[in-house]
Amino acid sequence: MNRIVIIGNGFDLAQGLETGYEHFLLDYLKGIIEKIDFEEEDYFEDELIKFEVLEKNEFYSSELLQTKSISEFLDNDLFKQKTRKVEDPFYFMGNQTKDQNYYVAKLTAKSEFFRKLLISQNWTDIEYTYFEYLIYLFKSNQSNFKMQKNKDLISLLNSNFNFLKSKLIEYLKKIETSAQYQNSLTPFMELLKRQLQKPENEYLKRFFKVNNEKLKYFGLPYTYFLNFNYTKSIDFFINSFSPEAIHIQIHGNIDEPDSIIFGYGDDSNEHYKTLENYDMKELLEHIKSFYYPSQKHYIDLMNIIDSDEFDVIVLGHSLGLSDRVLLESIFEHENCKAIRLFHRGKKSHFYKLIALSRHFKNKQSMRKKIVEFDENDFLG
Q1: Is residue 352 domain-resident?
Q2: Domain coverage including residue 87
Q3: Residue 228 and residue 330: Cα distance in Å, rounded?
Q4: Which of 87, 199, 264, 349 could lock 131 by a disulfide, CB 3.0 to 4.6 Å apart?
Q5: pLDDT in tens, 338-361
Q6: Which residue pairs from 117-122 have beta carbons closer than 8 angstroms and sit at least 24 positions apart in sequence?
Q7: Which element (helix H / strand E) includes 68?
Q8: For residue 58, is it within any domain?
Q9: Chain Cα centroid distance, residue 110
Q10: What angle do CA 287, 336, 361 make, to 5 degrees?
């Protein structure tokens, strides 16, 4: 049998790496403040955002640099009216009519896509937010979409997304440079190493339908680490786990920026089919399935799941829709016999089950493959 260990961002977070999208976006916003401080300017602008200090004597950048979340950053009093209290942070699209002098600082989201990211309160899926807004633009302008004006809207969105991708790569490189990878396994890693060893006989009998005679021939599963992260935090663990384990970094890595696949990955979505049938290549520019064939990893993975029966361990992956087609190819494959979900508690495990169900057309098949909740499968 084979084993596929799916590694997601939760693995990096469990190691103390600040690789979440909220970490990235907050660092991006703080970077703007640091740039203004360093250059002693009162104005900054790039493709996504414009920041203006309107009353320099009252602007205290330290307040913003000490914030711990995007919500806290945007809710800072510097962005609120001085004459009367306003609950909403001051971010908008340029149609504000109030006297700007009521404010100490003004933060303008130049991109509607980026504004949606900031106000969504859901930092986990930039790729899905991109796709939702792409569909919104298409559907709201579909009747006259071939007009140049509407093509320009899609080009602008794609440009915004590419800009954000470049900033994400810069941020992750910075995180990698400052990361202190352990020279010895942490207690969590030691626990994980034990959890990934040879399955117990009862497990093999239940999910792989083997009898006592066949059990004699079952050794340690051949393990493939399917890594969805762009970082290399898993490398040390894989080397200590087994010299024969294979690492597949399916979406590329930050040491090779051209290898990175960043976009939306559910081409079974009914809205996607509408885009596909429309003659405009820009609509499909950030769909992951067009990038997989350019890398050998995808074909390698398909050959692995076709070659033998396997179980799957999900370790820190959100099972979001942005990877739906790829995950569905694994989970629904007839060779997939069991799926085990690492978690942060019973409720976390339950929510993982809900997310997993979105990758199955055959729900009965899913129920046969689920490994029940185990408190030892805890993602620290």
Answers
A1: yes
A2: 22-123
A3: 14
A4: 264
A5: 999 999 999 999 999 999 999 999
A6: 117/25, 118/25, 118/70, 118/74, 118/91, 119/91, 121/71
A7: none
A8: yes
A9: 23
A10: 55
